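Protocol check, entry for the methods section draft. Step 1: assemble the input record (protein sequence plus ligand SMILES). Step 2: submit for complex structure prediction. Step 3: store the structure tokens unaltered in the notebook. Ligand used here: zinc ion. Step 1 record:
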Amino acid sequence: MSKSILFPLHELRLPPTCVICLSPAPKRYPIQQVFTYGRRSHTITVEVPMCEAHFNTASYKGPAEKATGCLGVGIGILAGIFAAIILFLRWETSNSLILKLLFSALFGFGIFAIVWWLIAILIAPRLAVPEARQARNAVRITRYVPEGQLVQLDFVNEQVALLVEQTNGSS
Ligand SMILES: [Zn+2]
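Step 3, stored output:
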């Protein structure tokens, strides 16, 4: 059974114990989740303590995940170039050509970043090897409340959740 806790993001302190096996945790693995409310989207990152072994498991990227990461860069570059060319051709402005080129390039770069990021954050992690996915899912960010910047964390290991509650409750 998992256990959830709700805390203000900026006050959240995690004890230096591995969230999977409770041994001392020298490493921190960043978990990320995007929450969209209306037009605003919030990317929430929480650095989760992990022991050396579980950090390595969580960080491991199998061939499928790696390939998707590379593909994301490729598709991103193509989309970016395409977007830049479209903007350059369709944008009628009295501004100088250099300015037009510069804005088209900037726009293209923005599109590249968005496409690459979407593939990297949404698609690649789904192709992770089961062990890596399991380790990364030891803690999940299940909710974000913009008012008060509260995050809800879901812990697979209940003992870890209790430790976190103690760490944050004692202040
Ligand atoms: Zn561990």
